[in-house]
Methionine--tRNA ligase
Amino acid sequence: MAERYYLTTAISYPNGKPHIGHAYELIATDALARFKRLDGYDVFFLTGTDEHGIKMLQKARAQGMTPRELADANSAEFQRMAKSMGGSNDDFIRTSEARHRETCQAIWKRMEAAGDIYKDSYSGWYSVRDEAYYGEDETVLREDGSRVGPQGTPVEWIEEESYFFRLSKFQEPLLKLYESQPDFIGPAERRNEVVSFVKSGLRDLSVSRTTFDWGIPVPGDEKHVMYVWVDALTNYLTATGYLEDQSGARAGFWPADLHVIGKDIVRFHTVYWPAFLMSAGLPLPKRVFAHGFLFNRGEKMSKSVGNVIDPFALVETYGLDRFRYFLLREVSFGQDGNYSHDAIVNRTNSELANDLGNLAQRSLSMIAKHCDAAVPEFGEFTANDQAILDAASALLPKARMAADKQELHQILAAQIAVVSEANRYFAGEEPWALRKTDMARMQTVLYVTAEVLRQVAILMQPFIPESAGKLLDVLGIGETERSFTALSKDFALKPGRALPAPQPIFPRFVESESDA
Ligand code: ME8
């Protein structure tokens, strides 16, 4: 039976429409999900919306809607976004669903039974925008008298009866976890931040609210709703059904292999979440990877700041694969990145249209014309032939290692390096000149080029699914020969196999197409 692989995105607040940061996270996680599927894993890829809490409630009030109406309207937009970005998610969870209430109440009861939940009263600072409690020492009083949390968002003083989770008890177990599982948090900068945060001491965490009711009721005390992060984090468990039925169809996916999140929510995923699970006696996720933030020409984008870049419009302007390729190639996954019109056009024109597109077009149109539109015969391979074929076969092991560290940009960099090398090979061998002097050698060069393209196209599928698929179509590769198993020599192109008419696959982006 195939090995299972469960990966998730964060679930987004549907208090507004999806922005490019959401699209980025979805696309990157999707590329990893597709990669693992092609590599033979049984993959479960989850995304969704985080619908409860004071932030949603306030936004709904401001718009004259109920929170459920706001959640329904915007969750639909997030589902549409996932589709438009090519998301291959196997499920889309909404925290307002009945299945989720059940799992939240079950995990709460387990934490309570473990003696880790007690009633007291909370007084302290709260950021609605972050849905986070902050210690006074983490806040800053600004000159204008306003107070902000560590992420620069306004905090307000709250005082109310509240249930607490004994987070302080988990300081040592958490430090042990980070030490014994050094890969639990990636990239390394984030791990170091978390370790020093936990070393500095953990206060018990307020885990319920009484001043509003848009949330999941605390079992046995319905005056309280659960703190939205207890509710939100539990979504990852809900979707597997693990707590309800350990022999259920998806229960085997727990614990998750990978939570992909943004760098602003690392504390929730690497401190609170493993502590809740330890308390509940449940297995811990294997890894949490935090990506960076995307900036529009260097400026931070967020719903609250208002300079949101609509991902639907970006896909419409550039096409999905250009947009996906740009995001995953340009930005080192884990670091912050910048996006601009020029950067998208330059990157994709130079690497997709010029390097990959031209090589495919030139070699395949020669095959169509001079090799009877069939995979050419080949003679003995020269050292040059062998070198480029070897470079292509070396890609998979490198890509696997990079995928396990979420270094998506490294996978693409290695692939495009092979494509550039193949262009040099093609130019150096001059098959158009060989046509007049040595047809057999010309055929070998075209064969080698087409075989390298086949390997690259198979490995490009997670990133640019549609165009990689088209390239495989023109190489005559059937649906059953597209997984990473087909990268082995046994699946190399078979001389004599008829090829469909070549068609351009990576057109250049022409400036007049855009209204940018
Ligand atoms: O944080 N660039 O929801 P959210 C890159 N509901 N990533 C960005 C980004 C940007 N400009 N802006 C946001 C939440 N993100 C919670 C999560 S998970 C149990 C609950 C990322 O809608 C952000 O880091 O504010 C997060 O991973 C995701 O988008 C959803 O953000």
Observations:
- Residues 303-307 have pLDDT under 50 and may be disordered.
- The first helix runs from residue 20 to 38.
- The domain at 350-498 is CATH 1.10.730.10 (Isoleucyl-tRNA Synthetase; Domain 1).
